[in-house]
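Single-chain item
Fold in token form
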Amino acid sequence: MFTMFDVTAEPSLNVRPSHLVELPLTPLQARWWLLCTSYPGGMSPLVDLVHRFRGPLDADAWARAVDAVVNRHEILRTLFVARPDGPVQVVGPANGVAMEVLDLRDLPVEQREQRARELLDERRTRSLDLQTGPLVHTSLLRLADDDHVWRMTIHHILADGASLGVIDRELAVLYPALAAGMTPDLPELPVQYGDFAWSQSVADTEQEDEDREYWREQLAGLAPLELLDALPRPAAKGAPAAQLARVLDPELVRRVEELARSARGTRFMVLLAALHVLLFQASGRDDFAIGIPVAGVGRTRPELARLVGLFNNALALRGDLSGDPTFRQVLARTRETVIDALDHQDLPWGQVVAALDEPAQPGRAQGFQAMFLHEEVEVASRLTLPGLRVEDFPLGIPKVLHDLMVYARPGPVGLSTTFVYDTGLLTHDTVAGLADGYERLLRAAVGDPDLPVSELVKEV
């Protein structure tokens, strides 16, 4: 996730009145409520936490640790109720969460891992009812006495990607203590997500009005992105996603960063500028937006940074490739767009869309159809547990809201670029051409950033 903020010493968040039972939704939650209740579809938007444990796992202690996390964070026990004036959220009792245990040890060894993936994929494509729940599911799969896979699946209306790091950090404290028969040493949470929701409902709207006007002007007349080689757009989103990955070698990454410094920018800005040029070539349009995720206003407060909840936001960064600029000029325009957008990043994306008054189409995401997700540094495993080796257990992405999502992540052998796409709209060959063309375009851009875009796209 791209972020550019400091955790500030803002005034402490006011907690909600103690008599409130039904709490308002935050604007970000309201957006997900609308998406989940107004559009057809057979699965819910989810965030997943999946780990593989090699070694002697104490399954009982692990279950109690997961229960403790759910009991600590009210949002993980929350359901949503439709009222005449709109939906509200209601926190349930602190009863933990039922953990499903699936024993695969009777299967032949060579079949267990594939069966585990099938079982997890099936559970990640379920539709979760916001009103009846449950909205949090956990499973523990036993592949061998010393080999377990655990997953927690959470409806996106409850949590964002940063919340998974919060959960991991707490489990790293809770599990060892519970396994050793000790009392975990975790500080009490001073506020809950419901307090944040209530505070947003009574907040001063002057800054919101300023941000809303900025986005209304910035995105006025924005046309959707349509790739020339795309299949006919389906009436509604519903096709599974697929992905393919490439690795940019360290020398190319070094040259990208060198170009960024010369332009007083960042690697993110160079990569985003190049993606705009790539999609310009693929669409024939010089004016469209690419979305990026940002951490959101709540994560800037120390007391909220420790919460599970939905804080992340999205920004639409409109590219300007008019007049056949050089890549250096595109980069300068991108830098200015990014800096201006971050100055207005707190207005929830749903409110931006509402300000644009863009008609909703079940087959197309509003505002932008492509996203770019960039990580500045290599992310090490967030979870370490004594006596266990914690590994990833990668799963595919079952469905994407946008047509194309491009991830850039540093790794041990370079910068990984992963293209995740909607198979109902894009073919493997089309996306493979984009992925290969992206690398060629970057090489040409760092080789001669003063080449005009019309020359650069010949490399794609």
Q: What stands out?
A: The chain has 13 helices and 14 strands. The radius of gyration is 23 Å.
